[in-house]
Amino acid sequence: MSDCIFCKIIKGDIPSTNVYKDEHVTAFRDINPVAPTHILIVPNKHIDSVDVMIVDDEPLIGHLFTVAKELAAKEGIAEGGYRLVVNTGAESGQTVFHVHLHLLGGRQMRAMG
Ligand code: AMP
Question: What is the pLDDT of residues 17-59, one digit of tens each?
Fold first, then answer.
């Protein structure tokens, strides 16, 4: 998607602080972190949101979680615990319409709401 900011980051057209990359996934630090660790884990394939995922995307989405777990260990937040968030749709707070998993940790989280 030519006008998608995360597609541009994945292609390297926009600078980002990458922490992981493979054939399927790119992970980089959120530009506006809300926790000491705030990483976005993004499929290299453009998918607008979870709401338009198809069954064939299941291995890819599962891979996002495996990468999140590995990054949590690398960041030193696995033991204390971390939060994984996928906003889906405008009312959820999704602002970038390219599926992404937020990895948040390094501080005590409050209840969701
Ligand atoms: P969401 O609100 O769930 O769609 O999350 C989008 C996230 O992308 C927000 O936390 C933004 O701070 C983050 N973001 C937007 N633009 C960039 C960028 N150029 N580099 C890194 N993170 C970004």
Answer: 999 999 999 999 999 999 999 999 999 999 999 999 999 999 9
Could you tell me the end-to-end alpha-carbon distance of the chain, in angstroms, rounded to an integer?
32
**What is this structure's pTM?**
0.97
Instruction: Provide residues with CB under 6 Å of ligand 1.
Output: 5, 14, 16, 28, 30-32, 40, 87, 93-96
Q: Where are the beta strands (DSSP E) in 9-109?
A: 18-21, 25-29, 37-43, 82-85, 101-105
Q: Domain 5-105: give its CATH architecture.
A: 2-Layer Sandwich (3.30)
